[in-house]
């Protein structure tokens, strides 16, 4: 699971760095005035910040879903373990009872 988190964060980081690099190159090689270039850089930064915010929200939501799934899995495993424990206790008690009955017959 930790490897998946690293893979996802690496993918997001690569995407963001690629987007920023591409935007910077496009702006630097575009024939614009200084003011237009500053406005374009500001707009790209706002777009990137918005995109990053959305990706962060999606990552948080995915994390919540995974935590809920893990919690449900743990609850199911706990219930199964309790059922097995109860069956084992009943079997041990039945064995004791049978032992005492056989011992009293002799």
Characteristic key phrases:
106 residues; mainly alpha; 2 helices
- Domain count: 1
Low-confidence stretches: none
Query: What would you call the structural class?
Result: mainly alpha
Number of helices: 2
Measured as a percent range, the helix fraction is over 70%
Oligomer: single chain
Whole-angstrom Rg:
31 Å
Globally, the shape reads: rod-shaped
- Main sheet: strands, sense, barrel: none
**Strand-and-helix sequence, N→C?**
HH
Number of DSSP E strands = 0
Question: β content, as a range?
Answer: under 5%
Q: Whole-Å distance between the termini?
A: 60 Å
How much is the average pLDDT?
Answer: 85
Topology:
Layout: H1 2-29, H2 34-105
Helix pairs in contact: 1-2
Structural description of this entry:
Helix 1 packs antiparallel against helix 2 (34-105). The protein has one domain. The chain starts with a helix and ends with a helix. The protein has helices spanning 2-29, 34-105. The chain has two helices and no strands. The protein is mainly α. Helices cover 94% and strands 0% of the residues. The model has no long low-confidence stretch (mean pLDDT 85).
Brief digest:
The chain has 106 residues and is an all-alpha fold.
């Amino acid at each position: 699971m930790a490897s998946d988190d690293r893979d996802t964060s690496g993918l997001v980081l690569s995407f963001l760095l690629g987007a920023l690099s591409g935007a910077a190159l496009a702006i630097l090689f575009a024939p614009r005035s200084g003011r237009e270039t500053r406005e374009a850089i500001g707009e790209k930064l706002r777009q990137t910040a918005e995109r990053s915010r959305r990706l962060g929200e999606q990552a948080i939501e995915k994390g919540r879903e995974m935590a809920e799934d893990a919690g449900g899995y743990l609850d199911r495993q706990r219930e199964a373990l309790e059922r097995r424990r109860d069956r084992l206790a009943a079997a041990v008690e039945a064995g004791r009872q049978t032992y005492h009955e056989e011992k009293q017959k002799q």
